[in-house]
Amino acid sequence: MLSQALILCGGLGTRLGELTAATPKPMLPVAGRPFLDHLIQQTARYGITRIVLLAGRFGEQIVAAYHGRTLYGASIEVVVEPAPLGTGGALRFAADRLEPEFLLLNGDSWIDADLTGFARAWRTARADDPTLAAQMLLQVVPDVARFGSVTLEGNRVVAFLEKNAARAGTAGLINAGVYLLTRDIVDLVPEGVACSLETDALPLLVAQRRVAAVTAPEGSYFIDIGVPETFARVQTELPRVRMRPALFLDRDGTLNRDAGYTHRVEDLDWMPDAREAIAHANAAGYYVFVVTNQAGVARGLYDEAAIASFHAAMQEQLGAIGGHIDAIEWCPHHVDGTVDAYRRDCDRRKPGPGMINDLLAAWPVERARSVLIGDSDTDMAAADAAGLRAIRYRGGSLLDLLKTSI
To answer: Which CATH number fits the domain that encloses residue 79?
Structure first.
């Protein structure tokens, strides 16, 4: 399962003038929070658990804001290059932190793309051709002049065309700023030397037909915040694009069979069509959130690491069919717990609405169209306390129930 993403944050942002005179471009505010925060949340929602931010000028600001934190289920590390190294050099500088396969994203652009589907396409393409070293996400735009363009043969990238004002008004495919790479790509980059991944390293792989591509669905929202006009637009466009309804799901007894304090990965047994229901909600444009009481921690039966492992297995098995859970909240507390650190009454524990309210506060959710599905009275009460519509799951196909509910 793909678990690591790197985000390029070292660009100078000179086209934005005074806006970036003392602020890294990804840290510029968009709808009241840094653009980078939106990007981290968007990346982590696809099950990415480790994010590395590759910073440059004013990197100390990114360190202060993110280094060592865990956000949206992902641990954050910041690596600051010692001098401007370009996109390829920054990647090479972080070589010792790379997993065998990882995502790489531009820190100054947004594409509303399905990263689970992107990773599945990579698995398929690599099975057909194990020599592949990279995959790019492409976007169709009506005017390629400002971006440069990409030429394909089948699903292989065969050429990059530079920005050219003479091509103004020409539609085409552009690099959307999302890559899936293998770790050995850094072997193409000299250590300590400034170079560009796009113009120095990737063309070498393109010449060998080792770069695959996936084109984002028509109508996918894409924006590069690198010029004043698009930075102004993103302030209203991105909040609108990100706002969507949410499906809140109970876990034990709704998604997986409840054997009593279920926590071992080998005991993960999905309810009928539960995985398919989640994938259906993903495709319908819903956030999918899980809210689960886990009093077994308070009772000393297992620890929070076991919960995290169980949820990682759920994400991996969902990814195999193209689904994902955007965020999982659990409450390990219980007033009668035997572990002192967890023995307390807690509003996050259902029937309290705390977990739901925390998700509503953290994510841009259209509450009126959102729904919670669970199998117990406590689920119904939690939804009511949070002001959400609730539907009782009584067994059978969760997919069939969902199709009549959203």
So the answer is: 3.90.550.10
